[in-house]
C-alpha cells in the first residue's frame, strides 16, 4: 500500500464509487495483459480496416497515420508483461473509477472492468497498435489520456506517467508529466497544459 491519503490529496471528489475488492484487483491483474480473445481480435481488426480506409482518403495529409494503420493488424499487437504499480492499485482500493481533481488536474480514472475498464479503454483506443507498452488509466474530460509508460523496467515498482491526446496517439507526441503515480496525482497542472501550452 502507498502512503497517499487519497481523501486529502484530491481537492474535489465528483464521483467516488466504492473501492475495488481484493477479488476485483486479482481479476484485473489476471485479465489486463492476457492474450487477446478471438472476439477482441475480430472487433479490433474491423476497426483497423475501417481506419485504413478512412485514413487512405487523407493520405496526402496524413502519411504517418496511413502507415501505422496498414502495418499493424490486431493479431500482431502485444501487451506489456508487467504489473500495475502498487500505488495505482491502492487508489483502486480506495475507489474503483473515481472522478476527482487536484488543483487544475481533473481525472476520470478507469475501472477494474466493464465499459470504462482499463483493458477495455486500452483496446478501444488501440493503444497496442499506436503506443505499444503504454497503458492508459484516466482521461481528463478534454480528450487527453494519462498513461503508464511500461516499455522499460519499473523503478521501485513505478513507471513514468505520460499525457497524450486521444486524437494523436503517437509516441513522439506523448509528454512525460511525472516519474511515478503519486507524484502525478499531486500535480497541479492540467494534462491539456502539458500538451498544448
From TrEMBL:
Gene3D superfamilies: SMI1/KNR4-like. SUPFAM superfamilies: SMI1/KNR4-like. InterPro entries: Knr4/Smi1-like_dom, Knr4/Smi1-like_sf. Residues 83-184 form the Knr4/Smi1-like domain. Pfam families: SMI1_KNR4. This is Knr4/Smi1-like domain-containing protein. It comes from Deinococcus peraridilitoris (strain DSM 19664 / LMG 22246 / CIP 109416 / KR-200).
